[in-house]
Amino acid sequence: MHATTKLSDDLKYDLIVKRIEERGVKLEEIAEITLDLQKKYLPELTLDICMDHIKRVIMKREVQHAVLTGLELDILAEKGLISEPLSTLLKSDYGLYGIDEILALSIVNVYGSIGLTNFGYVDKLKPGVMKKLDNKSPDKKEVHTFFDDIVGAIAAAAASSVAHKYAESEAVVKAYEKEA
Amino acid sequence: MHATTKLSDDLKYDLIVKRIEERGVKLEEIAEITLDLQKKYLPELTLDICMDHIKRVIMKREVQHAVLTGLELDILAEKGLISEPLSTLLKSDYGLYGIDEILALSIVNVYGSIGLTNFGYVDKLKPGVMKKLDNKSPDKKEVHTFFDDIVGAIAAAAASSVAHKYAESEAVVKAYEKEA
Amino acid sequence: MHATTKLSDDLKYDLIVKRIEERGVKLEEIAEITLDLQKKYLPELTLDICMDHIKRVIMKREVQHAVLTGLELDILAEKGLISEPLSTLLKSDYGLYGIDEILALSIVNVYGSIGLTNFGYVDKLKPGVMKKLDNKSPDKKEVHTFFDDIVGAIAAAAASSVAHKYAESEAVVKAYEKEA
Amino acid sequence: MHATTKLSDDLKYDLIVKRIEERGVKLEEIAEITLDLQKKYLPELTLDICMDHIKRVIMKREVQHAVLTGLELDILAEKGLISEPLSTLLKSDYGLYGIDEILALSIVNVYGSIGLTNFGYVDKLKPGVMKKLDNKSPDKKEVHTFFDDIVGAIAAAAASSVAHKYAESEAVVKAYEKEA
Fold first, then answer.
1. D149: nearest CA in chain A?
2. Does this complex have an ipTM over 0.90?
3. C17: how many CB neighbours lie within 10 A of its CB?
4. Rounded CA separation D26/C107 (Å)
5. Predicted pLDDT of residue B179
């Protein structure tokens, strides 16, 4: 069986990366957050390996749709095209809004529940590039209500992807082998 | 970078399949639910293709852990090793329990939010093999409180995996290509 | 301790109901879906009781924010203010989009995981008022990509709220009392 | 309409508190984590107010079921009643397990997605009483694989409950009032 029509994975990937970069963030900056999260568990981990996992995350359709939707809402809020009271909720990055976190959850979930912890941690501390996106002034012109959570969620999902690949414990391997 | 220890994917897969079969369900029976869910959208879909996607779902670590945990709780409840009031919650497949659904959610999420709808649908209707697992008598000896949701979640996740592979629309492909 | 400023619950509730009605759906129509879902378990259940629980659901801030955000996206798509490829994803109610389901999940979760099953079931079958919102023609003028899931999620959350209030089992009550 | 049988809320609450205390944690210790999380936003917040919100969280049925289930798994693992390989996953608090996080998510979700961030943050940093529960030695006798996440999730859910009650912003109040 063949899909009658099929999108090129590269085409989709390139479009999402372009949208992220147009909002002022480079993938390397997201990969740096991933490296920070995982290097204490995996001392040999490099930025290049983290970049590979960032790319895998961005290849996922659910992630692409969350990015397209969140950035659209940020941009429309900047342009004044969102109606009230949602406009104020978005422009002030209202702490009780919650929809930015639920979109981030759909990104993190792609690599399983272990990403929740890393997402929450970076969403609280706003390391690296996330700091410059986090500006809650209601008068500000730039709106990154969704984008800072999206960046954190991609970094956390990539950290999960790294952990799934490299962090298996010897005790667990032995426990499975005994049952085989 | 290499993982210092690495579990064989086949070993883990075989163990999970063995556990599912020991509880009375064959993978083909789960694949039949997937086929039922997707064939109206994809008339050429076959049981063999669905089996391939069931296998992919069962290769995911989050899914394996949900299966191991849910079946353990069912089995311990059967053996009378669970304390009260949890024992009664599990033995009666209490409708307000909710933890069986949250475990199922962790399975479904692996292929994204589109699986929620199919999971809810089969969890309500209990098609095929799910029917024989669904027996809410509080006096029954067999406990399948987690297992019926797990079977439905694996079937729904495989349906999402099939859809992600074959169900791209022409309109969406064109929309991306115009932006490239 | 007092909140320095405090929104009137009635004011927020009234605004959300107005927005839902402007999109062509009456709360009674959502309550009918809830009644359908629960009356086989609770034969004495009435539409009035279901309306009370619909109102409780709509009083929740997370639900209000999901409604405001989802309807805004539908309306902006109708007005041609969404950029491509997201515009096509929304106008065609693309089956692989997934963000509509994740927003619905944030509504359903407010009354716990037991709502997942009812949400999936109605999202598949589109009973009552959901049917008229579900029109996947890419040429259509009205866009209800988020709204049909929102309506189903509110109905399912209200069904959970009803179940939490009325559906406790005698066996579970006894199991707790023995442990007290 | 009346529920034919109805559990006493106090009875359920008392049982859950007893189970938490038997595992070595006092509610005040959880409330201290909540206070730490919220006092920088709400300088007048007190431990007593946080205790009120901890109690509200523990009154929720979904939370009670997550506590009963998670603690049961911890205790059965301590007693050697869990089969392999799950026993090793639980005894070593395996970082890739994920089911502890998904159970925590079901607790946090009760007060909406805004709790995800606080949960992740405390799950990473293990403040206060969480530190003494977090001991990943595979040879240890005590197993708190679920309990440390449960404690963090209750603290984070209570922080959300506090925020929902006291943290409304003036800009948002005005935006709603203009639309009324």
1. A117
2. yes
3. 16
4. 32
5. 87
Tokens representing residue C158 in the block: 């209200």
From CA D48, how far away is CA C1, in angstroms rounded?
A: 11
Q: Tell me, what DSSP letter sits at residue B1?
A: -
pLDDT one-digit tens code per residue, A27-57 = 999 999 999 999 999 999 999 999 999 999 9
Q: Identify which of C85, C105, C117 has the shortest CB distance to residue B172.
A: C85
Residues A38, A104: contact at Cβ < 8 Å? no
List the one residue out of C107, C109, C106, C87 whose CA is nearest residue C97. C87
> What is the mean pLDDT of the segment spanning D104-126?
94
Residue B42: pLDDT over 90 = yes
Of D3, D166, D176, the CB nearest to C3: D166
Q: Which of C14, C60, C106 sits opposite D180 (nearest CB)?
A: C14
**Interval B90-146: pLDDT, tens:** 999 999 999 999 999 999 999 989 999 999 999 999 999 999 898 666 567 899 999
Per-residue pLDDT at C9: 86
In angstroms, rounded to a whole number, what is the distance separating the alpha carbons of residues D52 and D58?
10
By the 8 A CB rule, do B118 and B156 touch?
A: yes
Nearest Cβ partner for D72 among B65, B86, B106: B86
Which residues of chain A make contact with B5, given a CB cutoff of 8 A? 168-170, 173
Q: Where are the alpha helices (DSSP H) in B81-169?
A: 86-91, 99-108, 115-125, 129-133, 147-166
Residue A129 CA from chain centroid, whole number: 12
CATH architecture of the domain B9-165 equals Orthogonal Bundle (1.10)
CB contact under 8 A, A116 and D104: yes
Q: Would you give the end-to-end CA distance of chain A in angstroms?
A: 35
Q: Are the Cβ atoms of B95 and C163 closer than 8 angstroms?
A: yes
**Which residues of chain B lie closer than 8 angstroms to D85, CB-CB?**
15, 68
Chain A residues whose CB is inside 8 A of the D167 CB are 95-96
**Residue whose structure tokens are 């990473």:** D124
- Residue A139 binned pLDDT confidence (cut-offs 50, 70, 90): low
Distance CA C35, CA C45 (A): 7
Q: What is the pLDDT of residues C122-164, one digit of tens each?
A: 999 999 999 989 866 656 789 999 999 999 999 999 999 999 9
Chains within contact range of chain C (3+ C-beta pairs < 8 Å) = A, B, D
Distance CA C45, CA D2 (A): 10
Residue-level pLDDT at B138: 57
Across the interface, whether the CB atoms of D11 and C176 are under 8 A apart is answered yes
pLDDT at site B3: 64
Question: Which chains are within 8 Å of B by 3+ CB pairs?
Answer: A, C, D
* Average model confidence (pLDDT) across chain C: 93
Domain extents in chain B? 9-165
Cβ–Cβ of B3/A49 closer than 8 Å? Answer: no
Of A121, A163, A171, the CB nearest to D138: A171
Predicted confidence band at D138 (pLDDT cuts at 50, 70, 90)?
Answer: low
**C9-179: CATH number:** 1.10.3760.10
pLDDT per residue as tens digits for the range A67-100: 999 999 999 999 999 999 999 999 999 999 999 9
Asked if A176's CB is within 8 angstroms of B11's CB, the reply is: yes
pLDDT surpasses 60 at D101: yes
Three-class SS state of B80:
coil
